[in-house]
Design goal:
This protein is α+β, with helices and mostly antiparallel strands. The protein contains two helices and five strands, in the order E-E-E-E-E-H-H. A five-stranded antiparallel sheet has the order 4-3-2-1-5, with helices on one face.
Amino acid sequence: MTDRRSVTFLRTPSSMAFPTGRLLASIDGVGHVLAADGWLRLGAVLPSVTAELSRAEAEDWCEQEGWDLNLLDEIYRG
């Protein structure tokens, strides 16, 4: 992995469609959401209510939801 950018992981609140919330990542103020086909760019406006997660907590979320942990590294490559 080259130039490892600063990433902040976040989780949205639970909803009927997403009982454990959605995993988000913010890089230099640009938001991304983890979707079925990888990371999708949201833009500069993130949901107003989120919980910041450590890398380890993001890994735990992925494991709990059955997502490949390598997806967390893909966000660094952008």
